[in-house]
Specification:
This protein has 181 residues and is an alpha+beta fold. The chain contains 8 helices and 6 strands. It has a 6-stranded mixed β-sheet with strand order 2-1-6-5-4-3, sandwiched between helices. Helix 7 runs antiparallel to helix 8. It is globular and about 40 Å long. The chain starts with a helix and ends with a strand. 29% of the residues are buried.
């Protein structure tokens, strides 16, 4: 009986830590997209990891990106529909997938996600990270933040709200993106 209790405590602890990490990834995502609204280019790029996968297509080195900081010129375009953080939080939902979830998801589940979220680019990102799962590890989280509460085409906001974040000793870092950074 004592062993069962200890195993249950251990299992609960592991489960709660996984949930906590997902919550922390979502919090980090919120801090990252807040940079769009605050137009804080330096803070945004401080979240960039050593390399970023454009969901498996190619890698871009951080040094090259930091020199150019091209995304900073696009902040106004990125927030055109979301306007501000409060509006974004009211009109859009955020899904967070752990590595275990996105690396083991079935094609049928990806298809179901696509049907349910047809005005999001999230299913494409989910499919891409699943196919290229060797690029990622158990410290990674796919965050899909372009899910409109009101499912209409005019509410699509694009791929700038989708990232793979890696938990590091220095906090969460962007290591994957659905759009070019």
């Amino acid at each position: 009986m004592k062993r069962i209790f200890i195993v249950l405590i251990l299992f609960s602890s592991i489960f709660l830590n996984a949930q906590t990490d997902k919550d922390k990834a979502k919090t980090a995502f919120m801090e990252i997209i807040e940079c769009y609204f605050m137009k804080d280019c330096n803070k945004f790029y401080s979240y960039v990891g050593d390399s970023i996968a454009h969901f498996g297509d190619h890698f871009i080195t951080t040094k090259k990106m930091i020199v150019k900081k091209e995304l900073c010129n696009k902040f106004d375009t990125i927030i055109k529909k979301t306007i501000n953080k409060k509006n974004y939080l009211e009109k859009y939902h955020i899904d967070v997938f752990s590595y275990k979830e996105f690396s083991t998801i079935t094609p049928k589940s990806i298809n179901d996600y696509m049907i349910e979220n047809q005005y999001s680019s999230g299913s494409g990102a989910l499919s891409a990270v699943n196919v290229h799962k060797k690029l990622y590890n158990e410290n990674d989280f796919l965050v899909i933040g372009d899910l409109p509460a009101i499912k209409k085409y005019e509410n699509t906001i694009g791929t700038s709200y989708i990232f793979v974040l890696r938990k590091t000793a220095r906090g969460f870092k962007i290591i994957g993106s659905a759009s070019k950074i």
